[in-house]
Design a protein that fits this description.
The protein has 208 residues and is mostly helical. The protein contains 9 helices and 2 strands. Strands 1-2 form a two-stranded antiparallel sheet.
Length: 208
Amino acid sequence: MTTNAEGPQTRPRRRPPAGAAVLREDVTEAIRSAVFEELASVGYARMSIEGIARRAGVGKTAVYRRWRSKLHLVLDVVSALAVLGLPVPDTGTLEGDLRLLYEFTSRALRHPVASQIIPDLQAEAARNPEIADAMRRTLREGQEGVASKILAAAEQRGELRHGIDADLALDLISGPLYWRSVVIRGPKLPKAYLETLTRATAEALKAL
C-alpha cells in the first residue's frame, strides 16, 4: 500500500502477461485420452488434429496451444508411457518375480487400445526416427528397469551368478512374450503358456 496527499492507495495487482493463461489439466488429459482412442481407431497416418479435438470435445486451438503438431503430440503421449513403468515384483524368488512380470506385461499388451496402437506405431517408427526413439524408450526402458531389478535381486539371493550378460538376460526376459503378443499376434495365449515361459526363462538365465 502507498500514500499520497489524497490518502492511501492500493498497489495495483500485476496481471499475467498476455498468452500466459494456465492450461487446464483436465483438458490436457482429455486430449491425451483422445489421442489413444484416435490412434486405435484410424491409425497414425490418418489421425488428424481435427479428429483428436472433436473426440476430446475441445477446439483445435486447445490442442495447438499444447503441441505444435500431430507428431509432437504423439511423441509426448507415447514418451509419457515410458515413465509410468511396471510394478516391480518382490516375491522372494526369480521364478515368482518373472511370473508376475509376465502377468503384468501380458495384460498390458492384450489391452484393446495397446494391441492396436503398438503395431501401427512400430510401422511408423520404420519411417520416422523420432517415433522410433520414443517407441524404443516406451517399450524397452520401462520393462528393462523392472527386469534389471529382478536380475539384481536374484543375484543377491544367489539364484544367478554375478556378472551375467545383462543385455542378453534382458532379451531373454522381454523377447518371447513381446514376439508372441505384438509381432506375430497369434491367438490367445494357452492357459499354461506364462508358467512354461517363466520356467524356461529362469533356467536360461541360470545358464548364462
